[in-house]
# Entry
Amino acid sequence: MARRLFVLDLRDDAQAIAEYERWHRPESIWPEIAASIRAAGIQSMEIFRAGNRLVMLMETGPSFDAAAKAAADAADPRVQAWEALMGSFQQPLPFAEPGQKWVPMASIFSLDDMPWLDEMPGTDIDPTNSVQSDS
# Structure
């Protein structure tokens, strides 16, 4: 499974942000949208917010093809209507390409890239068995 992260801003308006969040509640999202995401081979998707900045985490299976998903979305009137609605709350990042909404993020650090860490003393600490002190 591949993990992909994207970033996008919402308009810096508390009412718009609240409305965007409302549309993303399980009872509010259009079922066709969730179905189109899953049908594309996206196995998991989460959106996080800090202020007006959004970060989307997608985990995709081997059948996922970004170009095929984009083509399917462009041909689906319901997805286009959803995108237009969401676009009313979103604003492009200053460094986004023209017409680009969600900008892919590049990984700059991964603890998984440090296999030597497992051999260092003190790195085998079990975080579920930690003792905390009030001092």
Observations:
- The radius of gyration is 19 Å.
- Residues 8 and 102 are 5 Å apart (CA to CA).
- The mean pLDDT is 92.
- The beta strands are 2-10, 42-50, 53-60, 90-91, 103-104.
